[in-house]
Design goal:
Strand content: 15-25%
Number of strands: 9
Largest sheet: 3 strands, antiparallel
Helix content: 40-55%
Length: 274
């Protein structure tokens, strides 16, 4: 799938396709319509891109069994809703967090379903992390090709896998922060300013004090800021306000030499600066 710009075909990122499909599914659900799309599939760059929609993820969770959403927290911001969901697999005992920051406007118009979209997408993002790959493939193949093995999967996860997922959330946040760095620089926000904002926002001193929920929430905020100019400007405003508050409190900030250094390994047991 691609968009035409100045007579050139520009690839559309996979997440944009998924977001549009899931937005439509949530509206269908809220208005009492039948949800039709459990999967998405399109060609891009000579490759076929396939995956499960929100409805497909819920179907996979139903087939797997034992996965429930324990809690949902949400925050209303000036131009968005931020939702954080926690899902738990009662079979393995594993828990994962999912987050979504949803703009209140769809283009130039208010989106009356923005809050609902934020809640459902946060749940989707949490549940998906708990689903074993064989289950995801089973549902994908069933709705794409009408094939089903009829197998029930109960895959136990090791502690190493859990630690990898926490590290992935951390790496995602660092990657997004690095991607936004040029735009921060253009607005006189240094990397030191940004990571000082993160420390004050979550009340931590080093990256190892950050929880999985913190990294997941930060990733969601950065993703929303990257996609939506209004939410990027809102984040700039929060950073500048916290900087001003810190300056007014006359508490000097201690620069950390490795603030913008992305973690190199999955070992988070050693205390390191941001």
């Amino acid at each position: 799938m691609a968009e035409e710009t100045n007579n050139e075909l520009v690839p559309v990122p996979e997440y944009e396709v998924l977001e549009k499909v899931d937005d439509q599914a949530i509206i269908q659900m809220m208005t009492g319509q039948a949800i039709k799309d459990y999967v998405y599939s399109f060609k891009q760059g000579g490759k076929v891109v396939e995956g499960l929609t929100l409805a497909g993820i819920n179907e996979a969770a139903n087939r797997r069994g034992g996965i429930e959403v324990d809690s949902i927290e949400y925050t209303e911001r000036e131009q968005s809703w931020l939702a954080i969901a926690k899902a738990t697999d009662s079979i393995t005992g594993s828990s994962r967090y999912g987050a979504c920051e949803q703009p209140k406007n769809a283009g130039s118009r208010p989106d009356t379903f923005a809050f609902t979209k934020a809640i459902h997408k946060a749940q989707r993002n949490a549940i998906k992390q708990l689903l074993p790959v064989p289950v995801l493939k089973e549902v994908l193949n069933y709705y794409l090709h009408g094939k089903s093995s009829g197998t029930t999967y109960q895959v136990l996860e090791s502690n190493a896998t859990q630690n990898d997922n926490v590290t992935n959330a951390q790496k995602a946040a660092f990657s997004l922060a690095s991607k936004l760095k040029p735009r921060f620089d253009q607005n006189a926000i240094s990397q030191n300013d940004f990571w000082n904002y993160v420390k004050r926002r979550y009340g931590v001193e080093t990256r190892n004090d950050m929880t999985e929920m913190h990294w997941t929430q930060l990733s969601a905020e950065l993703t929303a800021a990257d996609r939506t100019p209004e939410l990027f400007n809102e984040m700039l405003d929060r950073i500048k306000k916290l900087e001003a508050a810190a300056a007014a409190s006359e508490i000097p900030e201690t620069p950390d030499p490795d603030l913008d250094t992305e973690p190199e390994s999955s070992d988070t047991s050693t205390s390191t600066p941001f």
